[in-house]
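Protein modeling request. Please complete all fields; requests missing the sequence field cannot be processed.
Requester role: graduate student
Desired output: 3D structure, token encoding
Chains: 1
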Amino acid sequence: MNKSERINRAFEAAKEEYARIGVDVEAAMDQLDMFPISLHCWQADDVGGFETPDAVLSGGGIQATGNYPGKARNIPEHRMDIEKSMDLIPGKQRLNLHASYGDFQGEKVDRDQIEAKHFQGWIDWAKELGIGMDFNCTTFSHPKAADDMTISHKDKGIRDFWIEHIKRCRSISAEMGKQLGSPTIHNIWIQDGSKDIPVDRYTHRAILKESLDEILSEKFSTDHMKDAVEAKLFGIGLEAMTVGNAEFYLGYAVANQILICLDSGHYHPTEQVADKISSALLFVPELLLHVTRAIRWDSDHVVTLNDDTLLIAQEIVRCNALDRVHMGLDFFDASINRIGAYVVGTRASQQAMLFALLEPGKMLLEYEENEQLFERLAMLELLKTKPFGAVWDYYCMKNDVPVAQDFITEIQQYEKEVLSKRSS
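Delivered output (424 residues):
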């Protein structure tokens, strides 16, 4: 019996096993096909960007650790690595790009001068691949962000510089979405904060609100671009206060009916981001999730199929919100093969979603509403031993990507043939 026959046989048995508890496996896979995951550009080059040759962006709470050989050094290498990663991942993906990754052709273009033309190459590339794109303003690692304040700065000159930058990023996002036929989510995350306890938090937050109001004053069609704002508890060097904390941005998103971005590494380690999803969905039109694996704090490790990731996926499915929640990844591990990090992290996120889609939702809800809590608990535990792996392997084969551990060999070969030939 060859591999495909073994996979098909295991899948048919799994499909029958799930059908016994009322789960349509084929329908679950179809739903997963409609839930793209946005790959973050910064994993491929350790948050370097292409503003200058050999750029290394850091500061503002941003730090990639490790020096594994073979990182992307330019845009062609970066795109090559993203394409290789996507070739090893089933389902649909998007690309999430930071403004510092523009194609500036060796010209020095300050961030308040960027235009859509600097990203046309990315748009054309995405069009060729048939994928959508998301976008982020880049407010860190810049002389005008040296004291870790940007659009909440009390200095109007500095503030205006960053307001102009983000305005331009929104316009670029709208052009991306228009050309690609899929709305680009523009996410506003700023590092603004203080290393030690500030006396005046209120004024900085009042300024931030005023700046955001100005930034969002220009309206774009949501067919082309959607706005999101992202909170953070703290960053490296910003331990005492971040201006845009959870309360600020949730209030702002609700008041302005834009997306709130929930990053699974931006809260206290004992908080469950999954628990926030149903609450936020009652008050904002859509959610953006940045999925990462925080060890201790916001360390942005590669996503794994752990309890936190599973709970996030289950909450999306249980809220019937696949069309209102957008999932992007946000980790940057420079200590391991970067393509391997992409593939492991994206597959884990997809596995979590598939596991959640294979729940007998109607049965579990009936147990809960009938106060059959033992039965609910028992079924949730039994699901952990259902033949989920057989369904996942079939889904990978169906999408013509490596099954089980086969992607490891592919990445090792790519490292031997491509990555190892790149000088540091």
